[in-house]
Each structure stands twice: as structure tokens, then as C-alpha cells.
Amino acid sequence: MRTSQFWQLIADEFGDAYGRVLVEDLVLGECGDVTGRVALDRGDDPRVVWLALCRATEVPKSRWHGIERKHRRRG
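Structure for DUF3046 domain-containing protein, as requested:
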């Protein structure tokens, strides 16, 4: 997962502002008792951080892969 995809998932699930607060402040045991920001900054896979956030905040498994987006074709 690219970092940009991580941030899109965060924004879709939690909203941009609250999502950033979670990444900055929520300590994730699965990532070694550090925040998501620290984990990302030290090079952890964004997918690992995303899934740790999902479990820590009890996001239903059905949303772990994000929302389905409909692609519009421009004619």
C-alpha cells in the first residue's frame, strides 16, 4: 500500500481531521506501542498501520479494504 492510499483510507473512514488525530495520537500496541505517525515515520508498511488502526478502533472487517468507488467515464 502506498502512503497516499493509507491517507485516503483514513479520510474515508474517519474524516480528514479526526483521522489525522488518530494517526498522531492513538498508541497502537500492534506497532510496538507507538502512534501510527511514529510507525509510518520509521518505515512500517502503511497497510500494517492501517490494519492496526482498524482493529484498535473496531472498524468492521467489511470496511478494512476501504469504500468501493464508482469510476465515472468522461465522454
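The beta strands are 27-28, 34-35.
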